[in-house]
Amino acid sequence: MSVKQDHRSDGCSDWADHYWWSSDGVRLHARIYAGPPAAGDAPPILCLPGLARNARDFEQLAPHLAQYRRVIAVEFRGRGESAYTKDPMTYVPLTYVQDVIALLDDLKVDRFATVGTSLGGLVSMLLAATQPGRLVGAVLNDVGPELQAAGLERIRDYIGTGGSQPTWIHAARAFGELNAAVYPGFEIHDWLRLTKRTHRLTAEGRIVTDYDKQIAAPLRVPNGGDAGVDLWPAYRALGGIPLLVLRGELSDILARDAAARMTAELPGARLAEVPGVGHAPTMDEPEALAAIDAWAADLPAA
């Protein structure tokens, strides 16, 4: 494990880079935002990204949450500065859960909250089920125990594909064409911002997606990407803690009926729908931020 101080290029937020090792020898990375001194030993918030995302997905949300308490933006194996694995079949939720537990042990964190987008939300549910009593709050961003087949098929079609682009503008336009139905209101500056979160510059000066294309391997097996098990018990493990379900109005992953059932199953759960976006809200939207602020206010202080 090693730690160094790094800085946001806009000078607005600081974080510490943290590296730790998985049980199978993969070097993993997270950004740690210190939080206010008044937060003391309050349980930190773990930000868990979606399938093809990384810690930069939270470059606005993490410093916003850090006004309340320490924030840890995780990069799953094969994404961002986390190393790629030799065995692509370890790119599965249960392995990510084990990696997160190794991080918590490394940082000596007992109790924590999570903000999980898509895959990150599935990991949150599995953490609740396998680490009883440790999770003190959760935000599930456009994900739940039931996933729509159409959305899963769309993800299978594009994940791990695609080449490189010569400039950031070219990459933003290509990314915008691929995801036009997800964020129909985006302009080119929005796509450029999102592209810089999800892509990287190679040593050859090309722009490529910032993940190991082999993360798609488990999705290619029969029923890959489908849960294969009943995730409702894992979801119910979130009962009794502050819980926010965010849903994109246009989502093809989390159906409106499924989101309604989620709130009915756990009466303490709040549901907030983010207008005009699909899977998944960036959580920079005013509606998402307002709902997350209300959720954070209910987290335990210690």
Features:
302 residues; alpha/beta; nine-stranded mixed sheet; two-stranded antiparallel ribbon; 11 strands; 20% strand; globular
Assign an overall shape.
Answer: globular
What's the Cα radius of gyration?
Answer: 18 Å
List segments where confidence is low: pLDDT < 50 over at least 5 consecutive residues: 1-11
Enumerate how many helices there are, as a single number.
10
**Counted beta strands:** 11
- End-to-end Cα distance, whole Å, is 27 Å
State the helical fraction.
25-40%
Q: What percentage of the residues does DSSP assign to strands (E)? A: 15-25%
What is the CATH architecture descriptor?
A: 3-Layer(aba) Sandwich
Q: Largest sheet, order of strands side by side?
A: 1-2-3-5-4-6-7-10-11
CATH homologous superfamily label: Alpha/Beta hydrolase fold, catalytic domain
Total individual domains = 1
Topology as a string of helices (H) and strands (E) = EEEEHEHEHEHHHEEHHEHEH
Largest sheet data: 9 strands, mixed
Given helix and strand content, the structural type is alpha/beta
Kindly describe this structure:
The structure is a single chain. With 302 residues, the chain is an alpha/beta fold. 31% of the residues lie in helices and 20% in strands. The strands form two sheets. The protein has a nine-stranded mixed sheet, with helices on both faces. Strand 4, helix 1 and strand 5 form a beta-alpha-beta unit. The N terminus is likely disordered.
